[in-house]
Amino acid sequence: MPEGDVARHISASPWPKSGYAWYVVIILSFCYLVSFVDRQILNLLVPLIQEDLGISDTQISLLQGLSFAVFYSFLGIPIGMAVDKGPRVPIILAGIAVWSVMTAVCGLTKTYWHLFAARVGVGVGEATLSPAAYSIIADYIPPRKRALAMSIYFMGATVGISMAMLGGAAAIGWAEGLGDVQIWLVGVLKPWQITFVLAALPGLLAFGLMLSIREPARRMSGIGKPAGSHLTDRAISLGEIKDYLLENRRVYIAIFGGFTLFSLISFGFLAWIPTYMVRVHGLAPSETGWVVGLIYLIGGIGGTLFGGWLSDWMYSRGKKDAPLRVAILAAAGVSLLAPVATLTPALELSVILLAGSVFFLLMPLGLAAVALQAVTPNRMRGQVSALYLFFVTMGAMGLGPTSVALLTDFFFQDPSAVGKSLSTVAIAATPLALIMLASGLSRYRQLIVDDDS
């Protein structure tokens, strides 16, 4: 069949059955949940790790961000190329195996640098998930429903954060009741180490569920034009991707830059809110887990789902730039709440303001992926998604926690000033995010194509 006939055939093919498509989204969301438990459990363990290893806030921030981010970011590009060229489900299966094993290894480490290396391994495994998941979801879910689908996928992160805190609080309480545990061939494990080992176990379930996912047929493989404009299954060169990104740089700068700044605030808060609760409000690590877990469970899930619903609602009413519009609205909400949430001396008011801040911070969580899939041809989606994740991971995950730690260690020079550091980061980053997102609206509207058929 000639290439043009193949294109028309693929374009006209029906979308997969709705029930199974949403099942796929839910399983991918669960895998993302598990990855975030393994990624974020460290944040609850900061006081215990610092006490045991004798390390500073800046050193902790490198475990939270840089150790994870470097390999997560750089491996994302070749993984994205593999996503664009071959089956995506096996890539995710391999990643789950790697990050689960390395999370358990975190619990067996005895020194700072061993823990740093194990966190690198977690990042290596988790680098496989989102580029492949974005691409799979885009081939299962039509655009008019895709914002909600992506929000459900990203809700896995929100629930994962909550589970890391709530489950971590329970695990810490149980492990502290055990005290130091002597294990044959391993040695003595302290409560924070036992917690890491327990956090690795849900990876077994994620691996098993992922085996039930069928590889979808690829859709809309246009090149050099908006997604859906014409189709081909040939491999796409890096040069063609570079040319396409440069041609449409205004919209990609808006998406990459705006959402990265947004995520910088989010990762900074995620990393240091538990420690803020311990240092400023005097909570124990186990108590902090319950409080922060509920903040993310209520504010995070509400914001993530509302953002996806609002984007789909606006899209259905002709606002094709809905993902960026919703992100701009969320940035406005963050600018009002986040700067004051960690400055109030009252615990109850701080919790309420933090829940509101988290609601707005996570409202656009799935919308960057929606925007990227909408303006990026299919055979570029894995690599462009990996490039986006590179920027977000290095710029937000790598710098977000460390920017807060550097302000605390070297500017305020007071561990109890962590709340002021969080507020400073929010004040600096939010206006820039809003401006960058707004700058891409017109070009985004020009690129977007409705391919719901």
Outline the structure in words.
The structure is a single chain. By secondary structure, this protein is mainly α. The protein has a single domain, classed as Growth Hormone, Chain: A, CATH 1.20.1250.20. The chain is 78% helix and 1% strand. It has 20 helices and two strands. Strands 1-2 form a two-stranded antiparallel ribbon. A hairpin with a 3-residue loop joins β1 and β2. The longest helix is centred in the middle third of the chain and has 36 residues. The relative contact order is 0.16. The N terminus is likely disordered.
Looking at the overall shape, the CATH architecture is: Up-down Bundle
What's the pLDDT, averaged over the residues?
84
The main sheet orders its strands as: 1-2
- Which spans of ≥5 residues are poorly predicted at pLDDT below 50? 1-12, 221-233
Helical residues, percent: over 70%
Give the radius of gyration: 21 Å
> Could you give the order of the helices and strands?
HHHHHHHHEEHHHHHHHHHHHH
Write out the CATH superfamily name: MFS general substrate transporter like domains
Distance between the termini: 22 Å
- The count of β-strands is 2
Number of domains: 1
Shape: globular
Helix count equals 20
